[in-house]
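Quick one from the shared queue. A colleague (R.T.) flagged NLP/P60 domain-containing protein as missing a structural entry in our internal table.

Convert sequence to structure tokens.
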Amino acid sequence: MKSLYILVLIALVSSCFVSATEEVVDIEQDFDAFNTTENIHYYLEKFGKLPLSTCQKAAARASHYSTCGCPYVYGGTSCGCGSGGLDCSGLVYRSYNDAGWSGIGRTTFNQIGQGGACNSKCSPSNPGACTVGDLFFYCFAQPCPSHVVMYIGGGKAAECPYTGLNCRIITPYATSYQTCRSMCG
């Protein structure tokens, strides 16, 4: 009788562990479902921000375009890395679209009104407090904002500066900084 009691106890305890494990797997599957292209808009509506993985993908795409020889082209929204071209807001637009989010605006004037405020400590002079994919807006000329760069991590940002230069990786400018917007923060 004692051995039967022990076996029943073991079975009950084992089933508790299996249920807990299955619950963790279900949560992970639900999380993965939010990170598909089809569900990004749902996630944005439900949580008020994009999944972090979307911003990480956008930052990776911006980094790619900024290191492959993509030229600056005013109004440009596509780059074959050596053909086509991007402007500053086109880099942001193309990178987020490549990451699966088509809701990003096309111009700096649209983009500055999207997302939410960045972490209060995030700035070009303190990029370590920023989230990859955050956008720094600048006022180099009127009307403002006149320039946008995307934070890509490691204290660096991706930008497409102006005619004659290719998109590139930079240390964010501290001068003429206007504000930061976060799509994922």
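The chain has two domains: 2-34, 48-182.
The first helix runs from residue 2 to 34.
Added to the table.
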